[in-house]
Amino acid sequence: MASNNAIGYMLIEGTETQIRGAALITDMKGFPVDFVRTEPLRPDQLAKILYGESFGKFAKEKLVLESLLEAVETDPQLWICSDPDILLPLRNNSRIKTVLLEESPHVPLDAAGHIEATADPGVFLVQAEPNGNPLRAEFPAGIRPEEIQQTAAAITEAAETMNILEPFSRLEKALSFLATGRA
Amino acid sequence: MGLRDFFARRLTRRVKVYKIDDFSIEPPETLRAVSKPQTIHIKPEVPCSSSRVRDFDEVREKMKAHAEKLKLSGFKAKAQNVKIKRYVKEDIKTHHHSFTKKPKTFTMLKQIQALPQERGNKLKLMKKRPETGRGEVMLACYGPIVEGSVLKLVLNKQRGTLLVWYKAGSRQLKAKNVYLIRRLGLGEKPEWRWV
Question: What is the pLDDT of residue B76?
Fold first, then answer.
């Protein structure tokens, strides 16, 4: 089901012993409309030997991410992630606008909605709210400039009614609770 | 030799020659000198499956029985010299390891809907603050919050954050900031004000 006013959050956490992920789709207030999480994936010693250090990346991209995308029932207008490993696979698998969003220490830009390119290719500063520091937005390689503009506009619009990064803390809490049994 | 032959040889130096018509000699028998060695398995049938070590007594018994069978004519197997390092119980099993099995997914919408959203105090970040009345002090600002959808607001005094629960199904989207304002004076309590 496609939804033009929903924001998707993808979080995949990996340690040496287990990898798990969750996808949260919220409306423009940040209220959850869909939430899917995976069971923990525990690589055994043989997998670690055969795949080496690349197993974590492989499991994130091919196993956890694809499972979550298959299970999600609501397609958001924008996927936001916090892990560079899944930025491009998320864009390619979902075919939905995707951005890696995080806080930045940069001084505020002129006004909400302003975008500024950085020295890093594919990385922009987006002033989502009128107050506070701009957000660091990293886009997958090869994205058209129009899509960057559209994504920045969607972030700014959502930031009028919600804290755009706040759902990640709920996802982290939910995953932490599932992993440890403690909130 | 007859008398005639005797005198013929002595006197005339002649020897009578007989013609033998049916002179036939059997061809010599040829035998192949290459021998074919006989191979005999001196290893008893001990299945091998895993690395589990088992009691060797049973193996020794099998070895003895097998050695008896090997006492063939002209050949005696030295089965007692065969050393068995490990005896294992079952047939070898192969295991298929699949590293591409995707993890199961679970939907937990109700549980995550019960979690509140958390808003930090952004008073310090604000370029412009709303005007306050005389004798009023602005303590904190939280937002954006959709006032019409709020189910419950709780101030987390330890962290200085505001926890927001929204009503499910509300379609309101008009967001505001909520300010915590305190009036100076004895007995005055902090007040929430939507702007």
Answer: 45
Taking CB atoms and an 8 Å limit, are A131 and B100 in contact across chains? no
Q: Is A8 helix (H, G, I), strand (E, B) or coil?
A: strand
Check: CB of residue A17 under 8 Å from CB of residue A60: no
For A126, the enclosing helix (H) or strand (E) is strand A123-126
Q: Using the beta-carbon criterion (under 8 Å), do A67 and B102 form an inter-chain contact?
A: yes
| B chain contacts of residue A57, beta-carbon cutoff 8 Å | none
Task: Please report whether residue B14 resides in a domain.
Answer: no
Asked which of A62-76, B32-46, B132-146 is least confident by mean pLDDT, the reply is: B32-46
Considering only A29-38, B51-60, B107-116, B155-164, which range has the smallest mean pLDDT? B51-60
Provide the residue range defining the domain that includes A87.
7-180
Residue in B with minimal Cα distance to A72: B107
Of B103, B127, B172, the CB nearest to A131: B127
Q: Which residues pair with A101 in a beta bridge?
A: A137
Q: Which residue of chain A is at minimal alpha-carbon distance from B119?
A: A163
Domain of residue B168, residue span: 115-194
Measure Cα distances from A60 to A86, A173, A177 in Å: 7, 19, 20
Mutation to test the A interface, candidates B104, B111, B117, most A Cβ within 10 Å? B117
Mutant choice from B102, B156, B162 vs A, greatest count of A C-beta within 10 A: B102
Query: Does the pLDDT value for residue B107 go beyond 70?
Result: yes
The shortest CB-CB distance from B99 to any of A33, A47, A68 is to A47
Three-class SS of residue A52? Answer: helix
CA dist A149 and A133 (Å) reads: 19
3-state secondary structure of B158: coil
List of residues 6+ apart from B189 with CB closer than 8 A: B182
Identify whether B32 is part of a domain: no
Please tell me which of the candidates A37, A51, A108 has its beta carbon nearest to residue B106.
Answer: A37
pTM assigned to the model: 0.73
Encode chain A (183 residues) as per-residue pLDDT tens digits. Answer: 555 689 999 999 988 788 999 999 999 999 999 999 999 988 888 888 888 878 888 889 989 999 999 999 999 999 999 999 999 999 999 999 999 999 999 999 989 999 999 999 999 999 999 888 999 999 999 899 999 999 999 999 999 999 999 999 999 988 888 877 665
Asked if B174 and B135 sit in the same domain, the reply is: yes
